[in-house]
Amino acid sequence: MNEFNLPYHLMVEEGIFYRIPEAMSDVDPSLSEKKMILVTEENLKSLFAPYIEGIQKSFPNSEVYLMKDSSFDEATDLAKYMAMHDISLVIGLGGGSVLDLAKFAAFVGKQQYICLPTTLSNDSLASPVAVLGTENKARKSFHCEIPDAIFVDVNVIKSAPKRQLLAGIGDTISKYTALNDWKLSWIRGKSKGDDFAYMLSKMALNSIIYNDLKDLSSEDFIKRLTQALVMGGLAMEIAGSSRPSSGSEHLFCHALEENFSEVTTVPHGISVAIGSYGACKFQNRNLSKITKVIKDYEIPVKPSDWKIDEKTFIGAWQSAAATRADRYTILNETDLSDERLRDLYYEMEEVFS
Length: 353
Prior knowledge:
Dehydroquinate synthase-like, alpha domain; 2 domains; 8 strands; 51% helix
């Protein structure tokens, strides 16, 4: 049986960023006395200045670190700095790149880690995985630990661009194809399954697919999306891998990021939603189900809207499996000919026009 960790706190409230020490006091009464580093980035430092100033007042022995490039080297350099200066608490304030950097640095340095997401664009707020830059433009997923606490400030999320929430929904509904790929790999003896992790990830998926709340700015929806993203992260923690949340649709996303970044830049959650439509077709699944939820939430998945032309679309799918060669998915068993992928491209152009 896998050993796994759970966050001490998951709180989704208005103004919670102002009450971090109070909220964590039952976990560690001496929290406010610890040496702390708050990891964020330059534009967020000014944008969220009142929150950062409030946190620093609560932590007299604190400093702010501004992320540069969210690379593996930067994360390990930060971990080294924290170890040399006896820092025992890391707070990550930002989107996925900031949170992954802070999370991995805290994991390497064995510090407590508190996650303060400023967007809900993907499941990085709770996953045991950090995606960091390596060489050139390549990015790699590294194992780490989930946060000790996650605080989501409803007011902050409401102020984020709508497209970031749509990306979070896209990241969640991509589990529809990821779970099917995971089960296929069990059947083929290519990976280890975990029924509980599978169930938890499916619950995250269903909480969005079968959700009557469509007002993305409402507190109820923000709570539901937070819970879905956290459940997805916990499913990965329990499984000991990202398989409950990552399948062929994520390989398509990786291929776009690693091989076609000069052509297009698509938010992660939108990219995997685009990939989910194709993966669903390759899996011979019910396309109407995923089409309906994409249209219900108005997730922008029309390839050409992201400057993804026919050539890029075909190239991304044909190079997708190679981005994670050890990950068995439907791509190992399906026809990825130019003709089939060209038909898929124009089908998506028509369906999501």
